[in-house]
Automatic annotation (TrEMBL):
Keywords: DNA-binding, Nucleus, Transcription. Gene3D superfamilies: High mobility group box domain (1.10.30.10). This is HMG box domain-containing protein. Transmembrane segments: none annotated. Signal peptide: none annotated. It comes from Pleurotus eryngii. PANTHER family: SEX-DETERMINING REGION Y PROTEIN, SOX TRANSCRIPTION FACTOR. Residues 1-70 bind DNA. Residues 47-73 have a biased composition (Basic and acidic residues). InterPro entries: HMG_box_dom, HMG_box_dom_sf, SRY-related_HMG-box_TF-like.
Amino acid sequence: VPRPANAFMLFRSDFLRSGTVPSEVERKQQTLSKLAGKIWESMDEDEKSKWRNKAEKVKDEHRRAHPDYKFTP
């Protein structure tokens, strides 16, 4: 069972689905992550807070669906 996505990963997924990413960047995951990271760093705390709240909801849903889940790297 994969662990739940954090705030940045939820943002990155939404960023990719938004259609604003050029196709040459979309194919290169490293470049995509760097671009999303720069945008994430430039966001204000209110905007990041929205993603953190979504991540908490995802984490809670994951906890309910998999109560015995323990992350093991």
